[in-house]
Amino acid sequence: MSALPPQSPWPPSAGGPMADLPPSRAHPGRATNGTLFTDTAVRTDPAPPAAPASAPTADAPPKRAPVRDRYFDLLRAVALFRVVFYHLMGWSWLPVVFPSMGVMFALAGNLMARSLKRPATQVIRSRMRRLLPPLWLLGAIGVTGMVLQGWGPNSEGHPGWWWLHLTYWIVPLSDPPYADGLPGFHHILGEDWGAELAGPLWYIRAYLWYVLLSPFILKALRALPWSTILSPIALAAALEFGWVHIPSVRIDSAVTDFSTFGACWILGMAHQEGILKRLPRYVVPSLVPFVAALGLWYALTHGFKAGHDLDDIPFAQSLWSFATVLLLLHISPSWSEWPRPLRRFDRLITLLNSRAVTIYLWHNLCILIAATLWDRLWGFDALGEHYAWLLNSSWPVLVLVWMLIATCIVSFGWMEDVAAKRSPQVWPDGHQNKPAHKHR
Amino acid sequence: MASRTRRQGAAHGAPDGSPRRRLPMRLLLPMLLLVALVAMLMLRGYVHSEILADHRVQPEASTDKVPEKIIDGGPVIDTRSGRTTSLNVPDHRMVLTFDDGPDPTWTPKVLDVLKKHHAHAVFFVTGTMTSRYPGLVRRMVAEGHEVGLHTFNHPDLSYQSKKRIDWELSQSQLALAGAAGIRSSIFRPPYSSFADAMDNKSWPVTRYIGTKGYITVVNNTDSEDWRKPGVREIVRNATPKGGKGAIVLMHDSGGDRHQTVQALDTFLPRMQKQGYEFDNLTEALDAPSASTPVTGAELWKGKAWIFLVGASDGITGAMVVGLSVIGSLVIGRFVLMLVLSGAHARRVRRKDFSWGPPVTEPVTVLVPAYNEAKCIENTVRSLMASEHPVEVIVIDDGSGDGTARIVEAMGLPNVRVVRQLNAGKPAALNRGLANASHDIIVMMDGDTVFEPATVRELVQPFGDPRVGAVAGNAKVGNRDTLIGAWQHIEYVMGFNLDRRMYNLLRCMPTIPGAVGAFRRSALERVGGMSDDTLAEDTDITMAMHRDGWRVVYAEKARAWTEAPESVQQLWSQRYRWSYGTMQAIWKHRRAIVEKGPSGRFGRVGLPLVSLFMVLAPLLAPLIDIFLLYGVVFGPTEKTILAWLGVLMLQAVCAAYAFTLDRERLTPLISMPLQQILYRQLMYVVLLQSWITALTGGRLRWQKLRRSGQVATPGGVPTQRRRVAHEERESIR
């Protein structure tokens, strides 16, 4: 009865991608304006396709069509799928095969740099407006549930702190708080669901900080490109080797995450700024394997194993993600249309892209519920006796997880549209409004 | 038979990408060879305990689960089929046991001493040592000693799974069967001592081994000879109290055992005087022998194993020799190149240096072109800017893309176009030669661009009447990509180190097709270009040497050429170069026994070229095999340091070459990866050339294909044909 399927090993900083939320082709009629310029969609709603490219700056890459780069869409979808897969399976080599977090931050940084051609405050405001409402929805449901199970101002020290920290659910400048060690819920939701729920939120916090800092980063990037790109790695090294010590846990985790994935975010910006294109093409493939090897070597010599993977070795993570992202951006083929073999995944990838935040925010809860439900099958003795291998397997749970995620997309996904000031959609896979019609 | 099927296959595959069809074969043979070598290396590492060795030793554990009678009992523990008994050796009998052997140095000495004193003993041998020194085990058995198992590679069994224990036992029996044709039923666990040292960790192992039919033999008198405490101490430790029977632990392996041998020489006669008999175990216990002969399949499996281990030792030995040969060749070559290229650069850059009177007479530039529509205009225009008076002859080798018309449409006064049916580059060059008006002939490719000074610099060496041919300095134009940067490094080193060295040694093997100049009289003396080989440029250069002409390098005659951009193109280019070079060496092999300049080239140049271009690269993969082996199985750090050392040496040479050529050093950052990916590609190409040369199949096939092309009037030339033509030029 006890054999819980290996579910979400939660290294606190494991994570999810998300979501620069390119609105995608959710509204085929006017999607072109949205494209990667999600914010411009607000004011210039039925804008002509060329609108986003109207203000090319001097160092913008010469080839910049105002169409979605399907390559980036593919990367985002793969990253998102990998995150869910990894949080279910817990295989420590998965983040090595595809470092989703670095990829997601790079894609987001790329879009941010693109948006920053407009005034910074406006960009930041629209980014936050896009990001936060889905979080508030999660918080409204999640925090209510926690409070119903007895979480309250007196749960941790002074009530003042509780109330103060609660504001992080509104603006996650630091990790939103959650109730520790909650009991399960009617054999549907497993124990300690609060921690599972809040687990992925570090990404939102890190993302918010990157957005806030991006105007400054962009200035630095233009002045000293490579020093800026490498500075987060230097910071990661400083933290790793103890040259810098940060006493506060909350600040420490913020700085650590910033240093771990900062280089990826900045690489995304640099790609947009055309800085990477200025290098001779042989430079990146010549150096990347050695940076990656250094990262891997560091991980292997510092206790890399199941349950202690790249996420727990931030310095190794920063090197490995940097190298991978650099290579992926170097390859960057800029697809304005899908290559033939990928064409059939168009709707799936579009859906994953346009509901990235929702999927990311809710997936961990889905995993917990799916695993709890699957565990109930042990209650049937015949099953437990003859099909123990099946009950122990995580693959059926994976199917269950995606079914639950589909439910979340339908139930909570609309918030992303509301945040983007679009009319809410049920199933935005780019093919008109056929509700809840799955293509997978 | 083989060649016929091959030809048919090629005929079928020709229209649509036959290169792809051949891919498996040219990869398969080298891969098989590589896998076999690696397997042999692994086998050797395995029996030398470099692989799968486990040196952990279990700390002492509690003993509450070990039966009292075992702890208080004798050193011979019988747990077979549910028994739990132990035996002691009867009084005045002594069983000497030697662990961890056989050892090639000490075991024979131990055996000699035992023989001298007519004593029998028991050797608990490890499977690895048995596999490596089967002869010693045979001698033990022949001289009446008993052989027991001591696992295959000496792990602490309490850490191992049952599967691993089974495997340790069966693998040891296999080695024993192969070495001496017997099985043994006595076993001693590694790191064991007395029966009272049995604990909760080791007892289950002992019981398990009993179920496999073995008697476990520990000891009750430890000589502690492994501590090397001195002969007297060993003798004292090994002497049992009061005439009791004893099983004495000694070692014939694992270090310097001369104390053990000396101790035995005192100990044996002394104890024999006290009335002790030295028996092997079953003699001492009056039990039936512990060893049974092995026959049939088991015996042959054992023999095969022993043979394989012997072969792996031999092959690994040969590989190590090969590695040191290649290592010294590589390093020697680099040192030689550094010294000679430095000397060459100093000489030709001296202020007062000149080849002779300045050459100002007009020259003929031959541009053989096959479907060069894209590049030919740039090529011809670059020649028009020449500071030296030139007559340009473009020989259109049956192009289908209007190359000739493009040149004619340019309407340049001193440019002539000669057309011919597609007949290959050597024929095109010969036709151009026949049409040339001047006495100095410059040859270039249709996709190469000269600088204004190139022709002038290229022909200045003809001021020296002994010079028959001049090699220019070809540079890679498309060096932005990784594969381009790698070729750039290769070219800069090839021209600034190799060619300078060969210049001074007077055995330059190749005038690059992209930029070279010939004295017409010299070309005519050797009969012009020939299509005997796939590398007509190497062929003609060797012919020049044999005719007594000097072949020199003109560093300032720079030509910009386009290097292959795909692995496929690069592959076919290099295959042609390396196979063509082998053909040319073979064609000119008679030079070795000839007199005069031909003999000089044959005895100095040909061996050098063969060594560096054909033989050394064949051994070079050894570097990678040992690198990989060292990284995986250790010593990892030393291996990587050694590799970095060689890399540094190469980087120094490359940096020197780049400095000589006044090139930016940044492309050198792609060198480490080049060492990991690019070089290996070149080996496989070379290996493929060797296979072709040894089987002889491909050459015929190529000629067949070529005539087929010519016979197709108006047929669209295939990509393959184009590659075959165009990529032979360029540089070596």
UniProtKB/TrEMBL annotation, chain A:
Presence of the UniProt keyword Protease in the record: no
Record InterPro entries: Acyl_transf_3_dom
Record field: transmembrane: 94-113, 134-152, 202-221, 282-299, 319-336, 357-374, 394-415
Domain Acyltransferase per the UniProt entry, residue ranges: 70-410
Pfam families assigned: Acyl_transf_3
Lineage top rank: taxon: Bacteria
Compositionally biased intervals (Pro residues): 1-14
Region ranges (Disordered): 1-63
Alphabetical UniProt keywords: Membrane, Transmembrane, Transmembrane helix
Identification of the protein by name: Fucose 4-O-acetylase-like acetyltransferase
From TrEMBL, chain B:
Record's keyword terms, sorted: Glycosyltransferase, Membrane, Transferase, Transmembrane, Transmembrane helix
CDD domains, per database record: CESA_like (cd06423)
Residues in NodB homology domain copies: 92-279
Stored SUPFAM superfamilies: Glycoside hydrolase/deacetylase (SSF88713), Nucleotide-diphospho-sugar transferases (SSF53448)
Matches recorded under InterPro entries: Glyco_hydro/deAcase_b/a-brl, NODB_dom, Nucleotide-diphossugar_trans
Stored Gene3D superfamilies: Glycoside hydrolase/deacetylase, Spore Coat Polysaccharide Biosynthesis Protein SpsA, Chain A
Protein name as it appears in the record: Cellulose synthase/poly-beta-1,6-N-acetylglucosamine synthase-like glycosyltransferase/peptidoglycan/xylan/chitin deacetylase (PgdA/CDA1 family)
Annotated family: Belongs to the glycosyltransferase 2 family.
Any Pfam family hit: Glyco_tranf_2_3
PANTHER family: POLY-BETA-1,6-N-ACETYL-D-GLUCOSAMINE SYNTHASE
Chain segments carrying region Disordered: 1-20, 709-732
Transmembrane segments: 27-47, 604-628, 640-660, 681-701
Keyword Transferase: yes
